[in-house]
Design a protein that fits this description.
mainly alpha, single chain, 9% strand, 254 residues
């Protein structure tokens, strides 16, 4: 009875140690994202042209109806190195997630080999034996192996690794989208600024042409005694200001 009690006591201690080790290796509780208390709508009326609907980040620049802008955006998306790097990180995160998911499936390994060997006919052993003429001094050796393994996710480490890989993948997706939105926005902003500068330049040159006609007419009036030198100088000053505006449109201040 005493020996049995000692044996049971040692077994209970071993089980307790095993349970403690298992609880130490077990994965913690599931992660739950904190709830964000964001309003469902604008607190005030949106500005003119602003809507509360989801933004079309994939094709929003199409609203301008400008084929040149569409071509510029397409070329920028194809050749931008930052976007290419973001897409490479996205492919890497996708591959890591696929590798983590593969850990739940059995692992299969197979190998094979082939060798061709030849026995020397001059060995003393073969020379002393009456061998037939068709004795296979040359022969081939084939070997094949197969192995399969499957690790059971007892403590949830593989599940947590898959969750982490999926989160990394989602982050890479959003990082790529952020680079794409920023790139397209920068191309569109620069293009709109260029078109605006070209339009202002055309208007300034048109005004300068009209002012040149006004200056010629004022000089003709002065020659006729209808206008004064002051009117001519005033018209010439206006024309000089318009021409200076042409240069400011071509070379805007930094």
């Amino acid at each position: 009875m005493r020996r049995g009690a000692i044996y049971r006591g040692r077994s209970g201690a071993a089980l307790a140690l095993l349970a403690a080790a298992a609880s130490g290796c077990a994965v913690g509780p599931d992660y739950h994202a904190p709830a964000a208390a964001a309003p469902a709508a604008w607190s005030g009326p949106p500005a003119s042209g602003v809507t509360g609907g989801p933004a079309d980040t994939a094709r929003w620049w199409k609203a301008f109806g400008d084929p040149e802008l569409d071509s510029l955006v397409g070329r920028a998306v194809q050749s931008n190195p930052d976007l290419a790097a973001a897409e490479a990180r996205l492919r890497q995160a996708r591959a890591i997630r696929a590798l983590s998911a593969a850990s739940f499936r059995p692992t299969l390994d197979a190998d094979g080999s082939y060798a061709k060997e030849k026995i020397s006919q001059n060995q003393p052993l073969f020379g002393s034996l009456p061998l037939p003429k068709n004795f296979p001094f040359e022969y081939s050796v084939y070997q094949a192996g197969f192995d399969a393994s499957w690790e059971i996710d007892v403590f949830g480490g593989q599940r947590r690794a898959l969750e982490a890989a999926a989160a990394e993948w989602g982050g890479a997706v959003e990082a790529r989208n952020d680079v794409l939105v920023s790139l397209v926005a920068e191309v569109a902003r620069t293009y709109v600024e260029l078109r605006g500068a070209q339009r202002r330049l055309a208007i300034a040159r048109e005004n300068a042409g009209l002012e040149e006609q006004e200056l010629a007419l004022t000089r003709a009036r002065r020659e006729s005694g209808i206008a004064t030198d002051l009117e001519v100088d005033r018209t010439a000053a206006v024309l000089a200001g318009l021409r200076a505006g042409d240069h400011s449109v071509l070379d805007p201040p930094a």
